[in-house]
Design brief:
Chain lengths: ~475, ~200
């Protein structure tokens, strides 16, 4: 058997099988256990080694030929596979208590497998095609049967589709540059096309309008899954480009371009968040800020920057999952997520309300919470190399903090005499409790992140060198 | 002779593109989209073997069929467009702008990539028309038609520089996937039947 069969073809088949069960819990448990199993095998099972199971001899070969091209997953990719499928297991496990697993698990597993395929395909620029296929998988997830599709879902489809032609064509130009590195006109053309492609793919400002729209119309947990999956895939794809093309990695303008895009995202996301009155849209703008922070980490163009870029994934995953989960719990009780609609809900739904606040503050980088250690390290590194960006990060964080304080105020604003109670179901309380605990523990013991993330830089051997 | 046929294909694309922009009837739209894929097939055939080029035609027509079958079961939309402006004169003027701009760019593209002028123009024309359709509508069906038109234009150009069978297969899968996603989006807006 080959690694691409194990981590791409089998999950795709399993995704189809997950459409069969009609019970939310069965779908969630099956999807989550299967993803966890894939993560565990990625962590423990070496590729290209021989295993003996009784009389059975197995060897996991790294590549698989398809239509004259290769899908290749090597030992260096395994930590990333473990992260991707581990994250999917987390998302699917919690979805049962929200009655969303039949929408999330089958399509989510399918699109996760396609995103893994995008990491494995050679030549790697074909990844743009596989990411587009993953986008198509996401469309039914974001549309509620019986309701007209919202503008967010349509814009998501349009903007993500726009990315593909630009990236594919720039890939063709990049191949030309490898053959003729001195052709500056070609370099400029490729850089412009690549920049446009990643602007759409990463939903960089001003092409980020689908993010808040989607957060306003789709169930927050599903929107959260999309906000975790696609920006992560896009960022990994971008690092893939930087890893493979030396001229791009060493271009003198690269740190400036990445820093500019990062600052724009952080400032725009933070400032716009401060003026929002919808809890889902605040989360959406926080996602924009997070994309900007990742770009700023990449802009350092050092090993430290690459390490921080990767280390940002764990707190982001936990914060987004906890935030979107808590928002969905609130959304199921309120007619909407506008401030006026959730006013005072904190008294009756305290677990979810604390979850929203803690997750938001963790993404802002509040001390003692999950996001703080990495943000602190990033701010220190940026202060040494690009001190001008610090003010913008502060502005973005301030905007987000204002938004979260306003959220807290709205949730706490119950009429006098309202009693405190906890109406969340038992599974919801447990999941939210685990979320809080992880947000606090990762803040108190950041070395736990590095235990997992230390293996990740193997994937990017050249980045920052 | 081949070049004359290429120009005929471009004329077909010009007519179908304008028709897609002006017509509000979904039957006409899907018929014009199907005709458009005939032109796409012919212009792709300039660079690909006929077996691979015909994949574009077959998948394009399959996409039209999927969208058509979805529309057949639905009630006629009340008034069509919700986006402005609805004037036909504006649309014709916008289409004219796309035609002339794409022709101007086609000369440079043709020289840059070393491809025939009709191939370059056909490709850029479809990309422009696709973007124009996307900019003027908020209906799922027309958005999918716009995206399919945009991608069809890109596929013509990309066929000139890339001949991989895997790319052809993935692009075909994306065309079909877009049509299926469109069918889902169109259906999603209709109330579910109760037994």
């Amino acid at each position: 058997m080959s690694a691409p069969i194990l981590w791409i073809a089998i999950p795709l088949a399993a995704a189809a099988l997950l459409l069969i069960p009609r019970d939310e819990r069965i779908t969630a448990i099956a999807g989550s256990l299967f993803s966890a199993l894939l993560a565990l095998t990625a962590w423990l099972l070496p590729i290209d080694s021989v295993y003996t199971l009784g009389a059975l001899v197995l060897k996991l070969s790294p590549s698989f030929e398809i239509l004259g091209r290769r899908l290749s997953l090597t030992a260096a990719d395994q930590p990333l596979l473990a992260l991707i499928y581990g994250a999917a297991a987390v998302w699917f496990a919690a979805s049962a208590s929200l009655d969303l697993s039949r929408r999330l698990a089958p399509l989510g597993l399918g699109l996760t497998a396609l995103l893994v395929a995008s990491l494995a395909v050679e030549p790697f620029l074909y990844a743009a095609l596989l990411i587009e296929m993953a986008v198509l998988f996401a469309v039914p997830m974001l549309t509620t049967p019986g309701q007209a599709p919202g503008r967010g879902a349509l814009r998501f489809l349009i903007f993500q589709t726009f990315a593909m032609p630009f990236i594919l064509f720039s890939g063709w130009l990049l191949a030309g540059i490898e053959a003729n590195p001195g052709d500056m006109a070609l370099v400029l053309q490729a850089a412009i096309l690549l920049g446009l492609g990643f602007t759409f793919l990463l939903a960089l400002f001003p092409f980020s309008t689908w993010i808040p729209l989607l957060a306003g119309e789709a169930p927050p947990y599903l929107a959260g899954f999309i906000f975790w999956t696609f920006p992560t895939a896009g960022l990994l794809f971008l690092t893939g480009f930087l890893e493979r093309y030396t001229w791009l990695r060493t271009a003198s303008a690269l740190p400036t371009v990445l820093a500019f895009a990062g600052v724009l995202m952080v400032a725009a996301g933070g400032i716009l968040a401060a003026f929002q009155r919808h809890l889902g849209r605040i989360m959406a703008y926080a996602v924009m800020v997070e994309t900007g922070i990742s770009l700023l980490a990449l802009s350092l163009n050092t090993l430290t920057g690459a390490g921080l870029f990767l280390a940002l994934f764990a707190p982001r995953l936990i914060s987004l999952a906890a935030w979107s989960y808590a928002l969905t719990v609130l959304r199921q009780q309120a007619p909407g997520l506008e401030f006026r609609q959730v006013k005072g809900l904190g008294r009756a739904w305290p677990y979810a309300s604390i979850g929203v606040t803690l997750a938001g503050l963790a993404l802002v980088g509040l001390p003692l919470l999950a996001g703080f250690p990495i943000r602190q390290a990033l701010a220190e590194a940026l202060a040494r190399s690009a001190s001008g960006t610090i003010g913008w990060i502060f502005l973005g964080s301030l905007g987000l903090t204002i938004a979260i304080v306003r959220t807290l105020a709205a949730l706490a604003m119950a009429p006098d005499g309202t009693n405190w109670e906890a109406r969340e179901s038992q599974p919801q309380k447990i999941i939210l409790g685990i979320g809080w605990a992880l947000l606090a523990l990762l803040g108190l013991f950041p070395q736990w992140v590095t235990l997992v993330m230390d293996r990740l830089p193997v994937v990017f051997q050249h980045l920052g060198q | 002779m081949l070049n004359i046929l290429n120009w005929i294909a471009v004329l077909l694309l010009l007519a179908s593109g304008a028709g897609l922009l002006l017509s509000r009837d979904w039957r006409w739209n899907l018929g014009l989209l199907a005709a458009q894929y005939l032109g796409v097939f012919w212009l792709t055939y300039a660079h690909w073997p006929i077996a691979m080029a015909s994949v574009k035609l077959v998948t394009g027509w399959m996409a039209c069929a999927a969208l058509g079958m979805t529309q057949v079961g639905l009630a006629e939309p009340a008034s069509g467009e919700t986006a402005w402006p609805q004037s036909r004169l504006f649309r014709v003027a916008a289409a004219g702008l796309v035609w002339t701009t794409s022709l101007a760019l086609a000369f440079q593209t043709s020289a840059w990539l070393g491809i025939n002028l009709p191939v370059a123009w056909g490709s850029l024309l479809l990309m422009g028309m696709g973007m124009l359709i996307l900019g003027l509508t908020a209906q799922p069906l027309r958005i999918v038609i716009g995206l399919l038109t945009l991608l069809a234009g890109f596929e013509i150009l990309y066929a000139a520089v890339e001949t991989s069978a895997l790319v052809a297969a993935l692009l075909a899968a994306i065309t079909l996937g877009l049509a299926l996603a469109g069918a889902y989006l169109i259906n999603a807006g209709t109330p579910e039947e109760t037994e």
